[in-house]
UniProtKB/TrEMBL annotation:
This is Probable S-methyl-5'-thioinosine phosphorylase. Residues 3-242 form the Nucleoside phosphorylase domain. SUPFAM superfamilies: Purine and uridine phosphorylases. GO terms for biological process: L-methionine salvage from methylthioadenosine; purine ribonucleoside salvage. Belongs to the PNP/MTAP phosphorylase family. MTAP subfamily. It catalyses: S-methyl-5'-thioinosine + phosphate = 5-(methylsulfanyl)-alpha-D-ribose 1-phosphate + hypoxanthine. Although this enzyme belongs to the family of MTA phosphorylases based on sequence homology, it has been shown that conserved amino acid substitutions in the substrate binding pocket convert the substrate specificity of this enzyme from 6-aminopurines to 6-oxopurines.
Length: 246
């Protein structure tokens, strides 16, 4: 049984270093997860892995079944979730290919299935979300980065947009005024649902590009791919240092 799970995002459809033991198809009361859960060993730890956008990267951010993914992970005994996510950099220090461990999040998404607490409830429930990410898991990731000399940013506010289109310059300016340092399309409802299930959850973000209007010209998928290739190499190094610390 894997107590630790990794949700892979854009640029991390599979974990190269994962020694795969088996794949498990899980049906949930909320529908189908993004794909089978892969169980394996990663740097000495049992780990479950699920690719957020599906094994072939075919599920766009607004159609990811976040509830099914997190329910499935909890169902197999996972208690800690490491989310890997590609983001656009808004703040000056959030430059391309850099790793960021955000500590706050703002939700700009809409019409996504965003809670487990609906339907025939015995009681209305409001979970606390003051600290949206697990402080312990964040600290472990930050220490892992330091241990292997990765120049990561250990804080930042993630603005979760609806996608799948990228943002306009004015939208990014608004996010910046709101205090967002990063922009991505999958941070919510994933983080909120993890909290509802009582899972420890933290994100390792990889800056794929300067957010709209913060760099030169348009955002191209070429630059996104190049930066993610570089950033994911650091994610792999971070995970190698992280696993023994968990
Ligand atoms: C320009 S790539 C946009 C795509 O990448 C991110 O996905 P993930 O968070 O799963 O790594 C972003 O949220 C968008 O879905
Ligand atoms: O610029 C972006 N905006 C939203 N999501 C993203 N994911 C990677 N880059 C971006």
């Amino acid at each position: 049984m894997s107590e630790i799970a990794i949700i892979g995002g854009t640029g991390l459809t599979r974990l190269g270093s994962l020694e795969i033991a088996r794949r498990e198809v899980i049906h949930t009361p909320y529908g189908e997860p993004s794909g089978p859960v892969t169980h394996g060993h990663l740097f000495g730890r049992d780990v479950a892995f699920i690719p957020r956008h599906g094994p072939g990267h075919t599920i766009p951010p607004h159609q990811v079944n976040y509830r099914a993914n997190l329910w499935a992970l909890q169902h197999i005994g996972v208690s800690r979730v490491i989310a890997v996510a590609a983001v656009g950099g808004i703040g000056d220090e959030m430059f391309p290919a850099r790793l960021v461990i955000p500590d706050q999040i703002i939700d700009y998404t809409w019409s996504r299935a965003h809670t487990f607490y609906e339907g025939n409830l015995k009681q209305v429930t409001h979970v606390d979300f003051t600290e949206p990410y697990s402080p312990d898991l964040r600290q472990a990731m930050i220490q892992a980065c330091i241990a292997v000399g990765i120049d990561a940013v250990g804080h930042g506010t993630y603005g979760a947009t609806q996608g799948p289109r990228l943002e306009s310059t004015a939208e990014i300016n608004r996010l910046a005024r709101d205090g967002c340092d990063l922009v991505g399309m999958t941070g919510m409802p994933e983080a909120g649902l993890a909290r509802e299930l009582g899972l420890s959850y933290a994100t390792c973000a990889v800056v794929a590009n300067w957010a709209a209007g913060r760099g030169e010209g348009e955002i191209t998928m070429d630059e996104v791919g190049r930066n993610l290739d570089a950033g994911m190499r650091d994610v792999a190094r971070m995970l190698e240092a992280l696993m023994p610390r968990l």
